[in-house]
Every structure is written in structure tokens, then in C-alpha cells.
Amino acid sequence: MPDPTLLTGRVLRTLASPFDTPPEEALRIETDWGLIVERGQISAIGPAADLRRDWPGTTEIVYGSDLICPGFVDAHVHYPQTAIIASWGKRLIDWLNSYTFPEEMRFADPAYAAEVAARYLDLTAAHGTTTVCSFCTIHPASVDALMAEAQRRGQRIVAGKTCMDRNAPDGLQDTAQSGYDDSKALLETWHGVDRLSYAITPRFSPTSTPDQMAAMGALWAEHPDCLMQTHLSEQTDEIAWVRSLYPQARDYLDTYERHGLLGPNGLYGHAIHLEQRERDRLRATGAALVHCPTSNTFIGSGLFDMAGLMAEGQRIGLATDTGGGSSFSMLRTMAAAYEIGQLRGTPLHAAQLIWLATAGSAGALRMGDRIGSLTQGAEADLVVLDLASTAAIAQRVARAEDAWEELFATIMMGDDRAVRATWISGRVV
Ligand code: GUN
Ligand code: ZN
């Protein structure tokens, strides 16, 4: 790839949140625009004619009517569940015990972890995803595998060792002390190296003793710049179980809060069945909620209250939750978010959907200054979308009255065939 490179086509600009500003003012689809990509970053963005004038002689890659977007950011995934995606018929706790835990046991083998890490990053790149925030397994080598593979690809990633010291099979448990020690060692090895970030990762309250929760809270207090990721209020049976395991806690969120696991850099996956106190505390803290729509329908969890939570000022990202989620595609995930909005009587605009998959998730990861929007100085992680990638989409686009209608057809019906190119750190992958 020559450096610098000029990319021209249609360009998605992100000017504001489409949940605070009218969506078509917050995001713009500009025709005959472009970007200058230089040393892995965006050096300039503007009308193609201006860029050709100001950067004479620069090699131009012409994407024409394709839409150049920020690379998709998937704010909650489990890369070790890649091979068990689309496993039939169970709800959360049975699904974990039947499918997830046996597969996660296999990551005791570092070679298997390395194989799945590479496969997972290939699959996500093919779907236009350039950053993920992933749970690993209890095995430190499962973190090393994903971090090393992302580093090799120059990819921005967040990952952490999943800690569990109860209610999981023998062979898939650590202890409060070893969970702390291993997490700390991994954090010291990987956090802030190249584009890698470590997330402190207690799986969820049922699989950690209060001692382990406290140890995780202590580690986070020592490294408050790290993200902390976990699960919150996904299914009603789970919530009842949490109540029985933590009888003193006021609610599910309090099981984290009382152990130092509620903070502005916290990421709480699912967050479907929240009580008012939990919503108030999450908002006051500035913690991020992560909507996992294909997972929430696939495992039968419930309907996330996007409109209500956004209206009260929560920070929200979007995620596949692979492999509880049924897709690697953030397009499919946006479609599921739209459908859940419809079931709640609050349809999301295409600009809101694509914002959630880019700037929204980047903001949830506290990385909105580096990824998630195409702005000067941002990292050159891009997805280029063909908005007429299949016959079904193309015939619908022929009727579209504007570019948002075109994009919406790809959001609803598109898959990896819509991904013309994925760029990571200024290179096509
Ligand atoms: N809650 C605890 N662990 C998991 C997991 O792996 N997937 C989902 N969807 N929910 C969880
Ligand atoms: Zn999850």
C-alpha cells in the first residue's frame, strides 16, 4: 500500500450523537468525498476534489458509490465461543453448561487457543469489524493467543482473562488469588502495548465468590485506566440466582458495586432487566451498557430498552456477543437492534444503528478519540460497504430515495458480501 493513499467514494461522517441530534444532521453521507490515509492514520478528510488538489500525485483508490465507514467496533464478544456459535435450544445457564464451558475447557491447549484466535480475527475482519472487546477463558494462554494475533495484525483490541472460582466445572475455575495474580500479570504484559488493551474480566456474579469479586475490584482500583467487563441482568432466572447467591445485595448491580466493580470504565453486557436504582447508578457512574441483540433473542433473554436508556443519558455500545449471539456480523447485529426497537415501538434510524456499531461502541470502550469516526488524526480502521451487494439488496436500492434508505437495506439484509474492503491501521486486510 503506497503511503500516503487517497481513498475516494461516499464517506460516512460522524458529527454528533444521533440520539441527541436529529440523525441525518448528526451523521452525513457525503458523495465524492475522500480520506488521506498516512502512517496508519487519517491525515485529512474532505471533498475528493480538494484532497486531489492538496495531495497531488497521491495514489488514489476509487471506491465510487461504495460507502467508506469507520470500521465496526464490537463491544462484547467471547472469541473462545467461535466454534459453538448457533448451538440449539438452551437458555442462558443451560447454554453455558451444555455448550460454552465444555468448549472453553479446550483452551487449556495453547495451540487450540491460537488457532481459534486467528480464525476469529479472520472472520470478524471479513465482516468489517476492526476492534472487538473480548472475554477469553480462565487460561492465561487464551489471552496471550488473542493479544499476540491482534498485535501481529496491527489491530486495536481489548481482551481479558475470564475469572471464575465457582459454579463452573472443575478444570474451568481459578481462585480469588490466582484470578488476581494471573490477571495482573497479563495486564502488565499486554496493557498499552501497541494497540492492545487489557480488560479486567470477572465473568458474572454467579461464577465468582465474593472474595474473587473483591480481588477483581482491588485490581481495578490499582489500574483504574483499564476497562472492566462483565455481564448484568441478562435473564430473569439468572437474576433470581444472583439474589440467592448474594442475599445482602440490593440488586444485581450491587453485587458488583459493593466489591468495587462499578466505575466509569465498566462495561456491562446485556443489561436488559434493570431496576430503577440500577439505571440511576449506572448513569451517575458513567458506566457503559452493551446491547447484544442477536444474543438476547437467540438465548431468549429479553428486549433491551434502547430508547428509554438513551433518553436518560446512558452510554451504550453494540455487540454481537459471539457465540451467544448468532452472528459475527455487525450489520446483522444492527438489523437485530432495529427489530428489537420495533418490538418496543421505537424504531431506530439507520444513522443511529451505524453510530451504535461505530462511534457508540468506541465511546463505550473509551476509545472514541481514536476509532469509531472518520476524523483527522483518527486511526485508519475502515470498512468499505457495497450498498448493492446482492440482487435482493440492489433491487431495493433501485427504489431508494436517498442514501440513508440505501444504507438501511444493507443494514437489514447485508452480510460479509457487502464488505468491499476492511482496512486496519491503514492497510487492507
Ligand atoms: N453470562 C455469563 N457468561 C456468559 C456468556 O458466555 N454468554 C452470555 N451471553 N452470557 C453470559
Ligand atoms: Zn457475554
List keywords for this structure.
429 residues, Urease, subunit C, domain 1, TIM Barrel, 9-stranded parallel beta sheet, 7-stranded mixed beta sheet, 16 helices, 39% helix, binds guanine, binds zinc ion, Guanine deaminase
How would you summarize this macromolecular structure in one to three sentences?
This protein is an alpha/beta fold and 429 residues long. It contains 16 helices and 16 strands.
Explain what you see:
With 429 residues, the chain is α/β, with parallel strands linked by helices. It folds into two domains: 5-71 and 373-428, Urease, subunit C, domain 1; 72-364, Alpha-Beta Barrel (TIM Barrel), CATH 3.20.20.140. The protein contains 16 helices and 16 strands. The strands form two sheets. Strands 5, 6, 7, 8, 9, 10, 11, 12 and 13 form a nine-stranded parallel sheet that branches. Strands 3-2-1-4-14-15-16 form a seven-stranded mixed sheet. α5 (140-153) links the parallel β6 (129-135) and β7 (157-160). α5 (140-153) runs parallel beside α6 (176-190), α6 (176-190) runs parallel beside α7 and α14 crosses α16 (403-413). The chain is globular and about 65 Å long. The termini are close together. It binds guanine (GUN) and zinc ion (ZN). Zinc ion (ZN) binds next to β5.
